[in-house]
# Entry
Amino acid sequence: MTGSADHVTAIDTPALVIDLDAMERNLDRMATFARRAGVRLRPHAKMHKSAEIARLQVAAGAVGICVQKTSEAEALGAAGIADIFITNEVIATSKIARVATLARALTARGGRLAIAVDSAEGGAGLHEAIRRARAELDVFVEIDVGQGRCGVPAADRDPNAALELARRIDASAGLRLAGLQAYNGKAQHLRSPEARRAAVAGAVAAARATREALERAGLSCPLVTGAGTGTYMFEAASGVYGELQAGSYLFMDRDYAENECDASNSHFEHALFVLTQVMSVGPDRAVVDAGLKSHSIDSGLPRVHDPAGRRCFAFESGGDEHGILRPLDGAPLPGLGETIWLIPGHCDPTVNLYDRYVGVRGGLIDGHVERIIAIDARGAVT
# Structure
């Protein structure tokens, strides 16, 4: 049972629950930060995969959203989101054709589509598809600023790689050279502020050198975009980045919460939980109904959260359908049928396991279900 106005104890488990009050405070804090810092905010919707939540972010001041997959862009575009940046490379001919079709559809609605490119082949494929579709597409040259994944070498390592690609894009009818994609994902979970600051300093230097190389060659570089929840304050202060792509700030998973805070960092609260129920009790353990199919463990197991702050449990994996609670500090075991709140280790892949969020208003102890929120791009991995 999960209907509007139901008490939180009536939610069927396992369930993916948003504390709406906490989420809205996080939403406001990041929007306020970006506004005061004078940078654009384009949150990464690959985290929440929800058109309703994306609309809340845009209403709070975001210029649009980011996604990583063509199918994510299609799902959120079909649900009404009009300004989307695919911050990833698309190479397959079939996907490139879908990108062109979506670009034409968004432009017709007064919106825009952008994409990242790191190869001449990728740019050429997009040019041909856009020409056939009679569409327009914004293109960001992706540079590798420390992630060691996608991206051409930045100009401080290779003076020609990004410049030559940018020239090709600039010369391609239908493609608009929009700037540089410069994201360092490895920096996001470095635990100390000093380590994160140093990693971003390297990214800033690489992005600055590349932007200057393009400008010396007579090419426009309107925007450098990147940043994540772990480092956004450093990119914002750099004078190089003009747009932030942070996403996890909205929910704050267990892994991000383990970062040491910087003095310039906004405080974000846990707003995403997996609600689970005790289904069996043994002499030294309680077993809940949230196993590996209910939460991702790529960043570690979830943490048990007691809203009342009275009891402490360790969580152990019990397999696909079960989790095991062990009492700590002499805490009594929970009773059969009792509900338990879990903070996921990594929000993005956990969200992708569910079709919907249960939005709770008034807190996790005495709150009620306010609304159900669709996860429109759940399973969108192509």
In short: The longest strand covers residues 272-281.
